[in-house]
Design brief:
Number of strands: 25
Structural class: alpha/beta
Length: 455
């Protein structure tokens, strides 16, 4: 075991917390210092919409760790501290206490960058208007929910995961909701148009006004303390707006000092080590290895952050554990329906120049003689050259979230449509047909490829 003199972790949300836990376990003699801009740590931002709709009583309930938890274990937890400069050649940091404004110098032997991401704020005239709010951090979520308490209508700019969840939360809470998406479909980087259209129908049925192929051009103050939103098609009056237009890696501290991707994400190897051997990085700050395409992807997800932070913390003193990469497996509940997905979309597979095959299975998740045999849609993507599964998306009123995890595990291990078609899965009319819906989607793909491969 290597004894570390000092490890500094910059950022303490999900990746940073996971890293600190492993350093405490594997390197108990290490001196650990954590710098975090916020006063709180560990906020799960997906709880924002759950709080809005009333499922989660208080935003603070969605914090799973507190600074004091680590202080008790000997960690120097410097919250409300901003690292303003890193000199990788001298292993030095300049840090500002955001309360006293005092600037101090610190050093490190090993550094873990877990600085995360920030909301991508589009270049829209008037976006700085106080009625236009963000929702990523705990403080931003608190401000958003506080401001919304006295309002009746809200516009959400961006129809990705955060935007759709916010729309669901506000609609459930009784607000008038306008959801504006620049691309032609909601969740365009996660699902096929067929499922995106069904999600739009679910939102519309609950009163959400969904606009796609729409670009916001300006925010302006209007009469009655309202906000005027101008778009490339029309204008709309609302009480407030929330921005959810994607995430940008927060990596400016290492600009020009380690290798980065075009979007600013830090490039790391399978051990989460950067091009500087004394610096590791994890979470929203890094580019991840994408298993379906064998390339790289930017996956700002809590699930990726905790896994990468774990690996970085274990490897910071001794390179011993490789990351498994990602399938970007995600899921969400939209009113009474569950959408879950893993791997590539058709557009992403085509962009990766893969010979992609695609089938869409529709049926019921369990036999028709059972109560509520809800319809299910399964989109399955695979490589026609080697028959390996590339991705899957599911939508059903039944909870199909674990089905996405099943396909994720198959992709992780190079599973094929032939294996999926006959995968041993339990049968009970309570849960499925004799052939599970994943089996049936796999069988459609096998039929499309003119039968099973010889084994």
């Amino acid at each position: 075991m290597i004894n570390l003199m000092k490890v500094v972790v910059i950022g303490c949300t999900h990746a940073g917390i996971a890293a600190v836990k492993q350093i405490l376990t594997y390197y108990p003699d290490a001196e650990i210092t954590v710098y975090e801009r916020q006063n709180t740590i560990s906020y799960l931002s997906c709880a924002t919409y759950l709080h809005i709709e009333g499922t989660v009583e208080a935003l603070a309930d969605a914090r799973y760790a507190e600074p004091a938890d680590f202080v008790k274990q000997g960690v120097n937890m410097a919250t409300n501290h901003d690292v303003i400069r890193i000199n990788t050649k001298t292993h030095c940091l300049l840090v500002q206490d955001l309360i006293t404004k005092k600037i101090e110098r610190d050093t490190y032997d090993k550094l873990i960058m877990a600085t995360g991401s920030v909301t991508a704020i589009p270049a829209i005239s008037g976006v700085e208007n106080p009625k236009v709010l963000l929702c990523k951090t705990y403080d931003e979520a608190h401000d958003l929910c506080t401001y919304a308490a006295g309002q009746q209508s809200v516009a959400i700019v961006g129809g990705g995961y955060v935007g759709v969840e916010l729309a669901e939360g506000y609609a459930t809470a009784g607000y008038q909701v306008l959801l504006i998406q620049k691309p032609a479909h909601l969740l365009n980087t996660y699902v096929e148009p067929a499922i995106a259209d069904k999600i739009t129908e679910l939102l519309t049925a609950k009163g959400v006004h969904v606009l796609t192929n729409t670009v916001v051009t300006s925010f302006q103050d209007a009469e009655n303390n309202q906000l005027l939103i101008e778009t490339n098609h029309d204008s709309y009056h609302v009480d407030m707006a929330a921005i959810s237009a994607g995430m940008i890696p927060q990596t400016d501290l290492l600009a020009g000092q380690v290798k980065m991707a075009k979007n600013g994400a830090i490039l790391v190897d399978d051990y989460l080590q950067t091009s500087d051997p004394d610096i590791f990085a994890a979470g929203d700050a890094v580019l991840s290895r994408d298993n379906p395409s064998t390339g790289a992807t930017y996956a700002p997800l809590v699930s990726s952050a905790v896994r990468q932070g774990t690996v970085a913390g274990i490897n910071v003193g001794d390179r011993r554990l490789r990351t498994l990469g990602t399938q970007v497996t995600t899921g969400m509940q939209i009113f009474d329906d569950t959408m879950a997905c893993t791997g590539l979309t058709l557009a992403q597979a085509q962009a990766a120049e893969l010979n992609v095959g695609h089938v869409e299975y529709t049926g019921t998740y369990r036999p028709g003689f059972m109560p509520d045999p809800h319809p299910i849609t399964v989109e399955l993507l695979y490589d026609r050259n080697n028959r390996k599964i590339l991705g899957a998306q599911l939508l059903c009123k039944h909870d199909v979230s674990q089905a996405a995890n099943t396909v994720s595990a198959l992709i992780q291990n190079g599973g094929t449509i032939d294996q999926l078609a006959l995968l041993d899965m339990l049968f009970s009319p309570n849960f499925s047909e004799p052939f599970n819906y994943l089996n049936l989607a796999g069988q459609m793909a096998v039929e499309q490829e003119h039968g099973y491969w010889r084994s």
